[in-house]
Design brief:
3-stranded antiparallel sheet; mainly alpha
Amino acid sequence: MWRQNWIGFCLWLIVASSLVAQEREPPESASAKSDTTPPKAETPLAKAERELARRLVEREEAAEAEAEAVKSLEEAKGQLAEAVAADDDKAKEKAEAAVKIAAEELDDAKAELVSAKQLAEQAQEALDLVQREDGLRHRNAETTSDKEAAVPFDAVFKRLSQAKNAREEADIAKQIAASFRKQVELLQTQLNRVRKDSDDVQKKLSMQGGLSEELKANLWSERQKLTDESRNLSDQILARREEMLMAEATAKAKESQAANEERELGRWWHHVLRLAGTFAVVLLTMLVLRLVVNRRVSDPQRKYYLNKILSLLTALAIVIGLVIVFADQYQNLLTLLGLSVAGLTIALQELVASMAAWFFIKGARGFRLQQCVPLADPTTISGSLTGGLVVLMNNQVFKQPLVNYTRGFPYVWCSMVYTVTYESDWEKARELLQNIALDEPEIKQTAALAFAQIQRMSSELSIQADSTDPVVRTWAASNGIDLTLRFLVHPRRRPTIQDRLNTQILRAIQKSGNIDFAYNTIRAIPTPPK
């Protein structure tokens, strides 16, 4: 039976979980069902890595260009030295022009190398920032997925971590935007230098004479190279400005997300503070009531049960407060909880009934310790302890009628049956039993207390105050005459009183001489011969 109930509860819980999951699952969009897959966009991390690789290549090229410029300058200086040694004015003039051009090219190469190094450093810094942002994004995604399956208090700590990550991502996005702005400034400086060099070349080409055809060709080639480089730098500046604007927009979005998370946390803390205030009022009320109970109630058992009831009411008030505070934020959780409770109620109905019976037992009309309540149709009520421990379910109070021998009227009628033979003086035996019971002090005291109790109860219950003195009933049985002695006694004093009366009655009957106890016998009656 229990196994079937548990299987039913498990099936109920699975169905409830699937229903809650369907409520939380967003509907599929039409684009998600489409077979066509859009091309995957390049991630910021891949873009930053590609940019760093390009800047490193440009730095190497700038270093090689500087080395070539140094070599060209050395060659030009060597030619100048040869022309001076040969005292050739024309060759000397040509060599001086070559040295001047080589020196200018070396200066440009050094400037290009410095700019390339700075751009490479900025690209490396941007890559580090993007890597940090990517790590925070993954961690935030894990935090979000954990928050969906977490319990309320765990979700709060996850939200705290998510707000912190959003703030860090916003700071990183600002740093990335600043890095892109610095790159734009460096590229703009480099573009200005290239344009200045291009203007210088244009001025040289504008000269009418003094330039050889070879030098003009070199100047035209250099001017074309500077024009291409200027166009390339302009494109890079536009791209960096676009990335800078995107980084600034990302920073604003992350700041807005962090502000929303912090606003939600503030709302949650408002609920918590309100709940804490409710708890404080409940606990303070419970402490005051417990203090009143401890001072006004003198009965230890009643004091114990009242304190237990106060503790249960306090716990119930706290649970209700939790449900009220978090009901609007965790509706799916409450739905699953309600379905689970319904399934538990069906599968564990015996336990639920026992819990309800516990409230009945602890209530005003329930039972108390030291009371005498027989259960399960006892065959014999001896009133003596057997040393065995009997465990019963609380729900037994709903399944069978119960008799409380000690509630309201704390006394029971005790019957003692004695069977004497028909040949005995049964009238004398009857008088003997009556006198022994009347002479017992405890029985006399109990009879007086019971009569007063019945008179008090007659105003509340429809009962009449009858005699409470001991009485002897006579009954003719098959094997003798039954003399039944009935008297009132407290349930826990019954074995002691019975033992005392039995001892006195046996001694009195033994001394009488004309009273014999009857027992089961078989008489053989002779049959006359035919």
